[in-house]
Specification:
The chain is mostly helical. It has helices spanning 26-33, 58-81, 91-118. Helix content is 50%, strand content 0%.
């Protein structure tokens, strides 16, 4: 792919190549009507690539997936702890709250480490 100034950059996807949630998804229906095959990408043999074109180390992908699943579990627990009011809390809001708590905890840990080093 070339930019306006003629320099070359990474290849960009120009369409809906990944359809998430095929049940009731109009893109999945269209693909079926046009006999376009769909492939399951949830298996571990699908490589991921970094911006520079190098392949992402599988262990990093597994760590990110584990963290993502932990956040989803914690988000669900947070919504459940709110009782009926939790139904009004969006996934985004609960993730934002969890992320803010995580950042605050990491900041406190860094401050404690700095204080310990100064002693």
């Amino acid at each position: 792919m070339e930019t306006a100034d003629g320099s070359t950059t990474a290849v960009a996807d120009l369409g809906g190549s990944i359809i998430t949630g095929i049940d009731g998804n109009p893109l999945a229906v269209l693909a079926k009507q046009l006999n376009i095959p769909l492939h399951d990408i949830s298996s571990s043999n699908v490589p991921l690539y970094l911006r520079d074109g190098s392949q992402l180390d599988a262990s990093i992908d597994m760590q990110v997936e584990a963290l993502f699943n932990q956040l989803l579990d914690r988000s669900a627990a947070l919504r459940d702890s709110l009782g009926q009011g939790g139904d009004a809390v969006s996934l985004q809001s609960s993730l934002d709250g969890l992320w803010s708590r995580r950042e605050a905890r990491l900041c406190r840990q860094q401050q404690q480490q700095q204080q310990q080093q100064q002693q």
